[in-house]
Amino acid sequence: METPLVIKSFITENDYLAVKSFKDLRHVLLSETLKIWKIAIPVALSLLFQFLNNSSTSIYAGHLGDIQLSSFSIYQTVIFSIYFSLLLGMSNAITTLCGQAYGAGQFENAGIYLQRSWIVLITTCILLLPVHIFATPMLKLLGQEKEIADLAGKYSILVIPYMFSYAINIPITKYLQAQRKVNVIMYIAVVTLLIQNGLLYIFTHVFDWGIIGLAMASNTSGWVFSVALVIYIIGWCKEGWNGLSWMAFKDLWEFTKLSVGSSVMVCLEQWYSACIMLLAGHLDNPVIDVASYSICLNIQGWHIMLLLGISIAVSVRVSNTLGMSHPRAAKYSFLVTMFESLLLGIIFMTVIFLSKDKFASIFTKSEVMIHAASKLAYFLGISMIINTVSQIISGVVIGCGWQIMVGYINLACYYIVGLPIGIFLGFHQHLGVKGLWGGTMCGMILQILVLLVIIYRTNWTKEVEQTANRMRIWSSNQEQSSEGTD
Prior knowledge:
Blueprint: H1 22-64, H2 66-104, H3 107-127, H4 129-133, H5 135-141, H6 146-158, H7 160-178, H8 183-206, H9 211-235, H10 252-280, H11 286-323, H12 327-354, H13 367-374, H14 377-400, H15 403-428, H16 432-456, H17 460-485
Helix pairs in contact: 1-2, 1-8, 1-9, 1-11, 1-12, 2-3, 2-6, 2-7, 2-10, 2-11, 3-7, 3-10, 5-6, 7-9, 8-9, 10-15, 10-16, 11-12, 11-13, 11-14, 12-14, 12-17, 14-16, 15-16
């Protein structure tokens, strides 16, 4: 395709020629590696620093006691998962639109998309307040032990401000990532992490505030991160940001529908983990089973932060190249990223296998808990390989705007296939957490196989045409909205 189909062009590079020799292959590999990792490394580090905020809270909770660790784990994988996955999924709409708009050179629309996302996500947080307020009776209804449910419910109410901070900072990070302005997110994230750990130490060890101290530290760090990002886009991010505008309320319903549709894929995937954690609470020894599984999820989370960085990088790269009408670049970007990510997954798996008797000591001093977590090490290592493939595919999906289609695939793979297998292995075959996790792995493998077939059969030239059409529609709506305010 010679001429871009987008309304405005912002071509800073040419599309690749077809790979026909080793020299061509080396050129594509080196070029895409540089472009992907230039985005992926700072994004991965910023996500890791943000995730370490939660891991730090988990570590401090574990040193308060096993009940506190189990309660925080239930909050993290049920209550937190409900709202975070919903907000993150809904923000994928801005990822697709801003990424493709940036590739097409339509900078003026990006700031409006950001403000619309704020409105939609803040409204969503208000609607989710009952989940926090009635967390204790909800967890008891789901079969959790009274002591764990009471403490988890108390913590859920205390961290309501933390939830609202995500409605501000998630859209900003997506907005900046789409424009490849990722270093500033990393710098702010590391400062926030230092503040978080300082507050955790003061509130729990000096003031001895227990779980209240954990909540206060989380609330403070969440809003420090959000306010710092807002200050940056207002003061230094001139490209695409022209201040607050009433135009953000135009076409809000259409944007809401797009956001809700975009959330389906992420929610179905993330809420599955919450289902597994709740089921683990029904096993013979819920405190040990829930906490040991949570330790493994925290370790896995560190790896996933790196994968999310790569996933976001390939998402930005694919959306930008589609916006620039470069179908081969989109395809080659996916292939190079998948190859290099698999190599990293193998390295992480090897590290877990070699340290299987030690890694849980980061979170707890309990020998029983450390031993229980070590039994899950092989599942953790294999999951790292599976997650590697799944996350990279997710990045391509978001870059292309296929979220709704993949939502249906996730529903079938995770809930119709994976969950029944997990329940059968965990309860009927008495394999406990291993069985539940085994079912998860079966669902993920099936999802990966289906999506690989879809990507293999994708006509990237048609994807460029669909991107151009999407940009025309939203740009037309934007212009009409602008005329209406004149």
